[in-house]
Amino acid sequence: MRNIHAILEQMSLSEKLAQMTQLWGEFPDGSPLMGLHYDFHSNRQLAESAGSILGFSGAQRTMEVQREYLACSDKKIPLMFMTDVIHGYRTIFPSPLALSCSWSPELVEETAAVAAKEASVSGLHVTFSPMADLVRDSRWGRVIESTGEDPFLNSLYTAAFVRGYQGNDISESDRLACCVKHFVGYGAAEGGRDYNTTQISEYQLRNFYLPPFQSAVNAGCKMVMAGFNSLNGIPCTANQWLFQDILRNEWHYNGLVITDCTAVYELVPHGYSIDNTEAARSSIKAGMDIEMVSTTFYDAKEELIRDGSISMELIDQAVERILNLKEELGLFDNPYKNADPELEKKYHLCKEHREAARRAVSQSVVLLKNEQESLPLKTSERIALIGPYSDNNRLLDIWKCEGKEEECNTLLKGMRDGGIDVLVSPPCTNCNLTCQAEVPDSLNCEYEAAIATAGSCDKIVLALGEPPEWSGESGSRAYITLPDIQLRLLDELHKLNKPIITVIFSGRPLELEQAAQKSQALLQVWFPGTEGGNGITDVLLAKSLPQGRLTMSFPRTVGQLPLYYNTLPTGRPQQTPEGCERFRTGYIDTPNTPLYPFGYGLTYTTFQYSDITLSRHSLNMSDVIHASVTVINTGKYSGCETVQMYIRDIAGSYCRPVKMLKSFRKIDLQPQESALVSFTITSDDLAYEIPGKGLLTEPGEFHVFIGPDSSTQNMAAFILTVD
Ligand code: GLC
What we know:
Distance between the termini: 50 Å
Bound molecules: alpha-D-glucopyranose
């Protein structure tokens, strides 16, 4: 083990502050960000001693930069290369919100391991993933990067991502250190507007927003990134309660903390710091170790510590954590780690990785509707493939890393390769997916041809959706509808009275009520990634059976947002799920319930649940209860059912949610096959975080629900007594 202290003692303040600075490798088009240039080309002096580089990869390139850098570094402290590998590096998997619909932490771990393998041979050392933000508002474009609205499921996924990226030893080849983000509450941006204010009670933080981060920390993630947002009036980047009280003192986290991009500099426009030097002091005091892209730490130099508010000890602690991570990555011994141009050629987009991506697609798509057995398709059927996404390779969300759209297989290619007899009439060759062209009484583009094509076919597959740039960072929308011209096309096709299977490509839950009404089948495919066309076709043909379950509620209208299943009951709850009784919480113009609830998803078969059987109806703190159901496959296809168990605490020191997911089980059943599914409930499953008191279980009545999604009313009650 290298003597990090010895290195530290030899470093000047300027060298230390440079280590605490991360420069941009190359901003996409070289344009300034927040009005300032931050790439390492335009900061030559700082570039020669900056501790890490953002957004720069490639085996050859990173080796050259590392070599140049070390050549002019007398301390020989190696550079770290970091970037956002959030669902693949070159082989791109479905977006995280899609992957989360697999309800398979194992799948997520596998995709992260593949991503780490491809990224590490391209010279990367750290990825800014998992994104652990709990989301409830699909106006926010970054829901696509999340794993949804439930803290229990999100906690399983953050740990799975960490295991996949880091393995047991980040110095091993094919592994990355990872960074959980954005600590905390960024997903609650008011109005769903990116970067906006968040106001979150400690009760909500501790029971919904913090647990997925704690799960990532407990899984050993090496870095935590602060969110852009202000939280209850204090920007995360300068929030000592978050980073000192919670992260360091309560969770005993001793890894690195990094700001988000230019977030220190943004403390001034936040109205929190008077100038850049004050911003630098506030963020270092809060616990920021690395400043991403802005350079207020480095620019402040001795001014930083002149007033004594920042001690050299605090700076040394930050630098020590940075050097420790470089040591743990093995970079002092081998600054190139496993950057290798030959392995890049071998790993990137290799057959095994494409197969993994194809499997991930089929497990991530969610079947929302399927009537008149419109699906699965048969290769004997003649299918009209219509719509802007029919042969469009824009299947990657904006965080596509080194993924290339031209390497994606489109839906048309997938269907043709799958042996489907498909007639296609793609829209305008320059279709930008959101054609705002004036729509005359008949549709422009080549939709007339499409409609004619449909006339000679058995069924229509209609590929609609929003373009990738309408979601992701800075992709917030006030209207979450499909482009109007796409709805007009659906209307025209609906007049043909042929089965329409609508496939939705989107980065968020959209308003789909109209699309659902006019389609016999509805398949949500998100941004499916490199193997999109093949994976979707596997499901259309039942080569892979649909098994996805929503991890984020789909609203009937944007007016319902924020919308999530685990709400508090209120004093005037609606009496029935569809109820609209006056003087009870609700709208006069739409039900409270989502169009499609959390946990929902269809298969090609049907399942029946028995009532719940409890092993006992009361337990004390040391007992356990077994809650069981029998599930029968009552259809003619085999199917994978995700049996979900929710619990409600009927009364507590705080109002408790109407349901909280506590466990689930994926079971495969052949037609007419049944299975007994049993969940074990302990008093720990009934605990919740009480601000100021910690994690506690309170006696009283509890309801356990077991069913196919969060709207289930299949319930049994039990009592928890004090010993
Ligand atoms: C972005 C994002 C963050 C990302 C970082 C580096 O602004 O907020 O998620 O990791 O910058 O690209």
